Amino acid sequence: xxxxxxxxxxxxxxxxxxxxxxxxxxxxxxxxxxxxxxxxxxxxxxxxxxxxxxxxxxxxxxxxxxxxxxxxxxxxxxxxxxxxxxxxxxxxxxxxxxxxxxxxxxxxxxxxxxxxxxxxxxxxxxxxxxxxxxxxxxxxxxxxxxxxxxxxxxxxxxxxxxxxxxxxxxxxxxxxxxxxxxxxxxxxxxxxxxxxxxxxxx
Length: 202
Ligand SMILES: CC(C)(COP(=O)(O)OP(=O)(O)OC[C@H]1O[C@@H](n2cnc3c(N)ncnc32)[C@H](O)[C@@H]1OP(=O)(O)O)[C@@H](O)C(=O)NCCC(=O)NCCS
Description:
Elements: E1 5-9, H1 15-27, H2 39-46, E2 58-62, E3 65-78, E4 84-95, H3 104-118, E5 123-127, E6 139-140, E7 146-147, E8 157-161, E9 172-176, H4 178-185, H5 187-200
Parallel strand pairs: 7-9
Antiparallel strand pairs: 1-2, 2-3, 3-4, 3-9, 5-8, 6-8
Helix pairs in contact: 1-2, 2-4
The chain binds coenzyme A (COA).
Coenzyme A binds at residues 25-26, 28-29, 93-95, 100-106, 128-129, 131-132.
């Protein structure tokens, strides 16, 4: 697969294909309590979020078809006594369902983490499958005393230091791009977006 897969930066002409890919990938997700797929909406919001990182907005192509994508945004950890540590967060990560398990997701994650290191970014916080991300070096964010924004912990909340020691004394609450909150809580905006999305679906 890697022999003929190309990873490159997303361009505006990819937007529709990437949103369709994101929807298709996340429609395969079957988690308890999950009521609908909204990650394609999140992607559309992230691109115009002030915390979005365009240099880490990658797509994977096979034979000219977009088969994978990954988005990054800035995030931070806010300490209870004051002070904060800058971090980055990736997601959504999407791979075309027909090509799951062929190494595309891993290639996108490794490629983008390497680029993030070259950009001197220091640590990554994500919500993701606890069975998948440890292979890239992720460990529970709780090990660093980092919690979600509401102070709670979660198995799916994971951290990776790109620069060793970055998170050693960084314990506090995670704050991520506003796009995540809008995606989760603005039902009206989601429904308007999703109606448009479905009407353009081939
Ligand atoms: C998760 C996803 C990005 C992985 O990409 P991929 O190209 O299919 O994965 P890779 O081929 O690089 O890696 C395959 C490995 O990931 C594991 N994996 C895939 N999805 C997993 C999941 N939900 N939980 C745990 N492990 C998972 C596979 O079991 C396989 O493990 P193995 O190497 O030990 O056999 C892709 O399956 C996808 O788009 N899923 C739907 C959307 C999604 O869940 N996105 C991530 C949200 S955190």
